[in-house]
Amino acid sequence: MWRNAIRSVPKKLDTGALVTVFDTEGGFVAHGLWDATSPIAVRAYSRVQQEAFGLGTLTASILRAVDARSCLFDLTDTNAFRLCNGEGDRVPGVVLDRYGTVVIARFDGEAIGVWTDALLASIWPALSSRGLTSLAVRDPSRGAGRVREVAGDPMPNTVAVLERGMWMVVDLAKGQKTGAFLDQRENRRRVRALAAGARVLNLFSYSGGFSCAAALGGATHVTSVDVAHAAHGIAHETFRRNGLDPNAHAFVTADVFSFLEQAMQRNERFDLVISDPPSFAPSEKSLPKALGAYRRLHEACARVVAKGGTLCAASCSSHVTLDTFFGTLDDEVLGGRPFRVLESFGQPADHPSVPGFPEGRYLKFVVMAEATPRLAQG
User: Fold this and answer.
1) What φ, ψ does residue 370 adopt, rounded to 5°?
2) What is the spatial distance between Cα 17 and Cα 73, in angstroms, rounded to a whole number?
3) Rg (CA), the chain
4) How far is CA 18 from CA 46, 110, 246, in A?
5) Given 212, 301, 312, 316, the catalytic residue
6) Distance between CA atoms of 127 and 134, rounded to whole angstroms?
7) Is 212 among the catalytic positions?
8) What span, in angstroms and rounded, lies between the C-alpha atoms of 80 and 72?
9) pLDDT in tens, the chain (378 residues)
10) Burial class (CB in 10 A: 0-12, 13-18, 19+), 265
11) If DSSP codes are grouped into helix, strand and coil, which group holds residue 164?
12) Of 217, 187, 194, 212, which is closest to residue 309 (Cα–Cα)?
C-alpha cells in the first residue's frame, strides 16, 4: 500500500511494526507490516480480520508455501527449487530457495528484515522435520553476497544439485541471488531439447547452466561467454559432474558486445544462440536506456545466428513487459531476417505470481527461429 494512499496513522510507528489497515469507512482491509521510510508504507500479509496477526501468522504463511511445492518435483530428478516466492506466495519480501538439503533465505525490504531472526528460528523446526539439514540467509548487513549460517549443519561453499536430471554445481557462498538462477530451470531443459547437432553460443553464461544443458542435449560445440572469469570455474565443475569434458568446449572471458563484434568480423556463426543478460532496467526511469541496450544486443545476436538457426532471448527486468520485449526482437532489429516467435515463457510454477502484482511476472524467455526449428530429441 503506497504511502500517499494512507489517510492517517494514529501514532508514530517503527519499521516492522504490526498494523491493521482500514478503509475510509472503517472496513477491514488487511494486516501488515509498517515501513517508516519506504514509498510502500504497508505490505499486506493477511486479509483475515479475525486472525491474531503476528509471528505465528507469518510462519504459517511461509510453511504453506513450502508445502505447496511438495507435489511439484520428484526429488530424485530435481532437488533445487524455490520454496517461498515472496509476493507470489503472499509473503512479501520472503524468499527461500532449496539446494539439495540446504535452504538459503533472502529478505527484501526493511520491514520484513526486522523479523529475520525471529522468522528463521520459527520456521527451522518445520524445515528440519521435512529433511532439510542447513539454513542460511543472505545477510545485506554483512555486505553484498555474504551468507550467514543460521541453523543445522554447516553450509558447504558449493553443492551439486539435480535439475531435471542434470547435475548443476552451485556456489552458495559467493553466487548471485541465493546461489543460482532457479527461475530458468525449465528453459535450460528447453535448450537441452533444441541443441542436438548444433553449434551453440551462450551469452552471459554465468555458471554455465544453459551451456551444460546444450552439451547434454547433443550440441557439437558450446561457446560460453561471460565477463566474470570465476564463473567459468563453476561451469567446468558442472560439466565434469555430468560426465562432459569442458575442454571440448570454449569458455571465453569477455564483454558480450565486444565478443559478438569480433565473432562477426571472423564470420563465425552459431546454430543456437542464447542471450540471458542481467537486468538492464532496475527501475522505471532506466527503461528507455534498457530497451536501447536490448535492441543493440539482439541485433548483434542475430548477426551471428546461422541461416535457419534459433535465437533464445531472455529478460529478467520486471519493468519490461513481454510485449515491450517483443519490440526489441522485431524484423527491423533483427536485420530484416524472417525470424518467427515459436514460443515464449515466464517463470516456472515454483515462482508463482498474483494477478495484482505484475512485477512478479518479470521473466521472459522467447524462442525464435528463422526457418524450420531444430526438433527436440527424445
Assistant:
1) -85, -30
2) 37
3) 22
4) 11, 13, 53
5) 316
6) 9
7) no
8) 11
9) 899 999 999 889 999 999 999 999 999 999 999 999 999 999 999 999 998 999 999 999 999 999 999 999 999 999 999 999 999 999 999 999 999 999 999 999 999 999 999 999 999 999 999 999 999 999 765 545 589 999 999 999 999 999 999 999 999 998 888 999 999 999 999 999 999 999 999 999 999 999 999 999 999 999 999 999 999 999 999 999 999 999 999 999 999 999 999 999 999 999 999 999 999 888 888 899 999 999 999 999 999 999 999 999 999 999 999 999 999 999 999 999 999 999 999 999 999 999 989 999 999 999 999 965 455 554
10) exposed
11) coil
12) 194
Pairing of strands 270-275, 199-203: parallel
Pairing outcome for strands 270-275 and 305-315 = parallel
Name beta bridge partners: 34. Answer: 42
Spatial strand order of the sheet with 42-46 comes to 18-22, 28-34, 42-46
In the chain, where do the E strands start and end? Answer: 18-22, 28-34, 42-46, 80-85, 94-99, 102-107, 134-138, 147-152, 158-163, 166-171, 199-203, 221-226, 250-253, 270-275, 305-315, 340-345, 364-369
Q: Looking at the DSSP assignment, which residues form a beta bridge with residue 372? A: none
Q: Please give the Cα distance from 267 to 255 (Å, whole number).
A: 18
Antiparallel, parallel or unpaired: β 134-138 and 94-99:
unpaired
Q: Which of 60, 63, 129, 67 is nearest to 101 (CA)?
A: 129
Which domains, from first to last, does the chain contain?
3-52 (no CATH), 56-159 (3.30.750.80), 181-369 (3.40.50.150)
